[in-house]
Amino acid sequence: MSIGLIYDTSQLLLGEIVWREHYYHLKSCGYTLRKRYHPDWTPSWANTSKNVHDCEDALHLLRSACGRAYSSSAIQHHLVADATRADGSVVAIKCVDVTQPQNDIPMLRHLSSDKFTSNPRNHCVPIFDILEPLEGSNIAFVVMPLLYLPNSPSFGTIGEALAFWKQMIEVDSSLLLPLLATESHRRISTHEFSETHLFDSPPHPRDESRTRDFSARVKQVYSRTTKPVKYYLIDFGLSKVYQPEDAPFLKKPPWGGDKTVPEIYGSPDSPPCDPFAVDVYCLGNYLRQTFLDGWDGMRPMNPQGFEFLRELIKDMVNQSPSNRPRMSEVAFRFDAIVAKQ
Length: 341
Prior knowledge:
This protein is an alpha+beta fold. Helices cover 26% and strands 12% of the residues. It has a 5-stranded antiparallel β-sheet with strand order 1-4-5-7-6. A two-stranded antiparallel sheet has the order 2-3. Strands 8-11 form a two-stranded antiparallel sheet. Helix 6 runs antiparallel to helix 10 (327-339) and helix 8 (275-293) runs antiparallel to helix 9.
């Protein structure tokens, strides 16, 4: 089903203008934005009988679903666009203001080092390129894979969903196990993956029901069982690297995207808290909302068959941070529970 249009599609939204302004710069670097962002763009439906809903250039940036997108608020604030490389592949480009505190380029460089990329359990989004700001500008661009939300298309079996759980748990445990630990307060709702190999044709970045040229509907032809998917974590603007000598690891609230973390938002003057225990809570809460209980009046993504993991999730979201398992224990318990099923 096509996504409804509730704005004047013939005009760029305020947040889209940055992409038009950098169109030729990105093209000179090998990345061509969609024609909507060409400085001389004219709507393809203008002065024609075309239905605007059938015009590819009517869609702004990537997609949104219930307020979520490539990076939750990133699309809402137009921080990510899709572009085509010379070889025809489509990538995502993130616009980063390097003067802002949540500039995640240093962390992305760190997570792209051999130490992490050589680890098969690493699920941090890979970086293809980083374009430094032009002279007089504070805008950099990070080029990464074009990714999709984890439930698009929906999980077909409990086993497919458990494969997602395992990857999300193992990436956290693999990051937290080394002495040089990375505390990553990501938007837990945006675990994403490259889904194009599941369809007969690569989906459009903004409307996944259509082909990229909007000439036809896409059809899912493979399941995640027959063609396993790799999931990635994104958005590391609030992450921090801790050295062993930094122990005890404490961080002063408020921070993070999950507003239900009790030690952060439980009182107006919360003391410094353990960021690793917060990571455990955030992941557990995401899995609880998505697969068990739902959130904000919405049903869970896959509402049946996951009660056998309830006890583990309950421990992960314990109101007392000291009573939560460490992420390495979560990984061990998850494997043991699944092995018994």
